[in-house]
Amino acid sequence: MTEALIIDDNRSTAYGLGQMLTFLGFKSRRAYGSSAAMSILGSDFMPQFIFLDLNMPGVAGTEILAFLRREPRLMRVPVVVITSDDQPETRSKVLRLGATAIVIKPATIESLETALRKSKIL
User: Fold this and answer.
1) CA pair distance 89, 112, nearest whole angstrom
2) Distance CA 31, CA 5 (A)
3) How many Cα atoms are found within 13 Å in the side-chain-facing hemisphere of 49?
4) How far apart are CA 113 and CA 108, in angstroms?
5) Which pLDDT tens digit goes with each residue over 66-94?
6) How far apart are CA 104 and CA 66, in angstroms?
7) What's the CA gap between 87 and 104, in Å, rounded?
8) How far apart are CA 80 and CA 75, in angstroms?
9) Is 24 helix (H, G, I), strand (E, B) or coil?
10) pTM greater than 0.85
11) Where are the alpha helices (H) located in the chain, listed in sequence order?
């Protein structure tokens, strides 16, 4: 079964995303914040795709995305950015950094399906 990594400092958001992914037929693991994410990404765990929040304390989601695109083991993993920031500059920046899709919060099943299709996961 395909397994996702959800990176979000908001536990409710991460849990909700996990529930929606389960409904869509995926397993997921959650990292609550950037430190937890870097710990998981530094392990042997290999997610098939990642949902990444942009606005987190400590290391921002854009920095994690840049790391993912430099890391040979993870550089081809599709990354769907999830954010409440719907500004054109933000969209442009994350796509330029290598995100495969963007979901604007609050996420819905439909917005997740669209992002997963765009990322060639569905």
Assistant:
1) 22
2) 7
3) 24
4) 9
5) 999 999 999 999 999 999 999 999 999 99
6) 20
7) 10
8) 13
9) coil
10) yes
11) 11-23, 34-41, 61-70, 88-97, 109-118
Is the preceding omega at residue 106 within 30 degrees of 0, hence cis?
yes
Q: Which class for 38: exposed (0-12), middle (13-18), buried (19 or more C-beta within 10 A)?
A: middle
Whole-Å CA distances, 88 to 12, 39, 71, 85, 117? 26, 31, 27, 9, 21
Long-range contacts for 34-41 (Cβ within 8 Å, ≥24 apart)? Answer: 34/7, 34/9, 34/58, 34/59, 34/60, 34/61, 34/63, 34/64, 35/59, 36/7, 37/5, 37/7, 37/64, 38/64, 38/67, 40/5, 41/5, 41/67, 41/68, 41/71, 41/74
CA distance 122 to 80: 13
Q: What is the pLDDT of residues 105-122, one digit of tens each?
A: 999 999 999 999 999 998
Contact 64, 83 (CB under 8 A): no
Instruction: Please give the DSSP secondary-structure letter assigned to residue 59.
Output: S
CA-derived radius of gyration, the chain: 13
CB within 8 Å of 22: residues ≥ 6 apart: 28
